[in-house]
Known about the structure:
The structure is a single chain. By secondary structure, this protein is mainly alpha-helical. The protein has helices at residues 32-35, 48-63, 71-99, 101-108, 117-139, 141-174, 187-202, 210-244, 259-275, 282-319, 333-349, 352-382, 392-395; strands spanning 20-22, 29-31. The chain has a two-stranded antiparallel sheet. It is globular, with a radius of gyration of 21 Å. 46% of the residues are buried.
Amino acid sequence: xxxxxxxxxxxxxxxxxxxxxxxxxxxxxxxxxxxxxxxxxxxxxxxxxxxxxxxxxxxxxxxxxxxxxxxxxxxxxxxxxxxxxxxxxxxxxxxxxxxxxxxxxxxxxxxxxxxxxxxxxxxxxxxxxxxxxxxxxxxxxxxxxxxxxxxxxxxxxxxxxxxxxxxxxxxxxxxxxxxxxxxxxxxxxxxxxxxxxxxxxxxxxxxxxxxxxxxxxxxxxxxxxxxxxxxxxxxxxxxxxxxxxxxxxxxxxxxxxxxxxxxxxxxxxxxxxxxxxxxxxxxxxxxxxxxxxxxxxxxxxxxxxxxxxxxxxxxxxxxxxxxxxxxxxxxxxxxxxxxxxxxxxxxxxxxxxxxxxxxxxxxxxxxxxxxxxxxxxxxxxxxxxxxxxxxxxxxxxxxx
Length: 400
């Protein structure tokens, strides 16, 4: 499998033909898309998942309600790596759009790939938040705040656009068939939830008054936007599993994407509750604190249920021969949001069980990140991950 799912469905439009180009030295005609930077042709928006998965290792590590020797230093190194990865993937994606516009347009009109444009937003937001919480030890608080403000502003704008444009394209252009719902559909919808949780970090840095209150309530609005949209899509995903069976092997790890809106929403309400007292009047501030626990505990319970279900499906797929694909990055960021969600609940309840839950999930996160990262590096070096996707018949082979 070359990259995160780029297999095509019956509704997917065919890719436009590359533009012809005449070589002035030889006089021969070639295809521009095949001539310039061929290794970038199949670098889709799904590659931002590696940035998200790396940044969450850093931010989740410093959010743990335990003090482990050397942990913050290790998280600082991982944050720096995530910043470098962001720059590299942004450059690769810019080259993709510059030299392979036909493929880029085909990705946008492909229902299997278009939802990954939500990953761009979440990559920017994740690195921005990690810069403010971890990177400030290196660059200083003022520089870290400036970086986070820029990445938060751009990431939020992209998140809101993706949350509208991708569903719009699904309705008017993609028109996916019955029973084709995928956890990938959640990606553009959970991006505003990431903005809500990362915006909480900026609330204390806004001058007290209308501006601070507006940012807090805007974050709650994005929380509601993402939550309600998730409640619309999630039943479709479960119905697809029940009525049509397990996902194809390469796509099975995407079941972990469901953890994203669950863990991120729990993280958001807890982080917003932390900063609410300085932004809104007392009755509302205390209500937000109560809401963080009343909402977060049941949702975290459902997240653990889904984690068990998705884990069982992955074990089944592994026994059936599931190999490595970029979908393995789904084991990182969604789980990381559950780490920060459990850590927030532990902070507000003082319950030791939630502390140990956060630690256990973080151990899983680090292991998944190490495996996915090592396999990705190997795939990039060998060229397997930058090659053309495998034929649809092989990529969509059903499990037994």
